[in-house]
Amino acid sequence: MSNEHTLDLHYVHQSFQRSLKEEDDVVIEAYIDGYNELVKFLNLIGSVFSFVSSDVKSKIKVMEKHREGDDAIYYESFKKMMKYEKETCLHEKNGFVSGSRTMLRLHRGLDFIRLFLKRLSDSDDAVNTCTTCQSSYNETLAEFHPWYIRKAATLAMHALPTRPDLLKKIFGTEDRLTEAMTILPQTLQSCDEVYQRVEQLYTDFDFHGLP
């Protein structure tokens, strides 16, 4: 894995590829490995998304407890987890921290990260990163946030640097940036495949509306 000051897209790609199970499932441990690396993207672009990345850390801790507990066997993959919590009605139990609900929050965050990264890679250096970030946020995470968080987030996006400076901040040296841009399409494809599988599972188990 890369150091904390740069984003390693190769590691994200490998982790998400490892997470793909059978034709329609996703392994939770490998998903979290890739997500942990990918969330550095939020940390590296500044404090604007610190509220998201700090929430991610707490969610991952919840999942670590599930995967180390007595029912760990049911928390190996998304499909197993959702089937278990649906059949036992655990997702409705007071006081129980549902893994399905917890991972839904990470799933929504992945949608924003992959969209913003894709638009950054597709644009030229003259693009307004603030506008790109705002549109990506408004199309994904914004609908799940209360108005005061939406307002604070969209205002903070005005502090984002230009595209060249932002990419340098995320990937480091010019050589690392060139390497990252080469593997980015593959990484985004892996993100998309993982996202679509998990999205379908939440639809199949009718879990999109978990509170």
Automatic annotation (TrEMBL):
Note the Gene3D superfamilies from the entry.
Glycolipid transfer protein
Q: What cellular component GO annotations does this protein have? A: cytosol; membrane
Query: Which one of the record's GO molecular function terms can you name?
Result: ceramide 1-phosphate binding
Tell me where in this chain the Glycolipid transfer protein domain is found: 28-170
GO process terms (BP)? negative regulation of interleukin-1 beta production
A matching Pfam family? GLTP
Q: Which InterPro entries match?
A: GLTP_sf, Glycolipid_transfer_prot_dom
> Which PANTHER family does this entry report, sorted A to Z?
GLYCOLIPID TRANSFER PROTEIN DOMAIN-CONTAINING PROTEIN (PTHR10219:SF43), GLYCOLIPID TRANSFER PROTEIN-RELATED (PTHR10219)
In which family does this protein belong, per the annotation? Belongs to the GLTP family.
Name recorded for this polypeptide: Glycolipid transfer protein domain-containing protein 1
